[in-house]
Amino acid sequence: MKIIDYFLKAKDKTFVSFEVLPPLKGGSMNDIFNVLDPLMEFKPPFIDVTYHRQEYIYNKQPTGYYEKIAIRKRPGTVGICAAIMHRYGIDAIPHLICGGFTVEETENALIDLNFLGINNVLALRGDARQFEDRFIPEPNGHKYAVDLVSQIHDMNQGIYQDSNIEKGTPTDFCIGVAGYPEKHFEAPNASIDLHHLKMKIKAGASYIVTQMFFDNNKFFQFQDACTKEGINVPIVPGLKPITSKKQLTSIPRKFYINFPEELVNEIMKADDKFTKEIGIEWCVNQCKELKKKNVPCIHFYTMGDADTTYKILEKI
Ligand code: FAD
Q: pTM for this one?
């Protein structure tokens, strides 16, 4: 089923959904099932699976020189989606990124998904590679997520990149995109970022999933700003509970978001062994307020931690 149809059918109901990361290469599918099995009790209509592009690593050689090697540390996104659909009978949403893909490779990836019966995707640009100071697309790859959305939308009309195909079979992908209540870090200001978000919707995206936030007011302000900009698609809030003191600095560094003063003060005052408890309580309160405001779905960035997500869901 298309994700947008869940939202349209749900009316005032708030779903929960989860995002999982493929295990590190060498891991097992059980790493994913161990996270998801207990969470199935909460009846998520869909699960997101992230995509991780190839990275460069530098291995020190006996000579003292470093050898540059390209590896994908977390492959398996599409296989994991198929395995989730098979085991739980629910939809799985692969994340598809611009980084590392030419438009032809994107087309082929979409054909694979279509043949597998996966008809939902979250279309993203992806981040810069480690050791690169900005996002660099592949030659003949997409520079922005909006271009990826357009390609998928074209395929939904039977328009393929391969110019030899005159009348291709139309696909039927429901496309989600990312939104940033605290602005994407590269955007010069919030209104320009919002304008780019609107372009993604105009290009064919049906819903938005947000970056994590810890202050619901930021989300509500973002919702209002979207409405003013003429963005009227469902907006799904993404949440991640804080579980350790060191995340007070690592999360803003990685995701460019702010922590509310009250939450930081509470965590700083307490022993680190209580951080998880404080984080769960904070997230529970966020969820309760979001539910009251009738958000269509609350999306949890599980990051492999089923226990914390379970404890939150038990309380809401
Ligand atoms: P875009 O929408 O392309 O925006 C990127 C920047 O460019 C923004 O500052 C925007 O304002 C600007 N911009 C957009 N269009 C234009 C234009 N036409 N001209 C000028 N500027 C423009 N990353 C992964 O690698 N794998 C994942 O699985 C993954 N999952 C994610 C899931 C969610 C819900 C979120 C919020 C993020 C995820 N990311 C993932 C991270 C994401 O790839 C990064 O945040 C990335 O930096 C931006 O992606 P985007 O799709 O928002 O890009």
A: 0.97
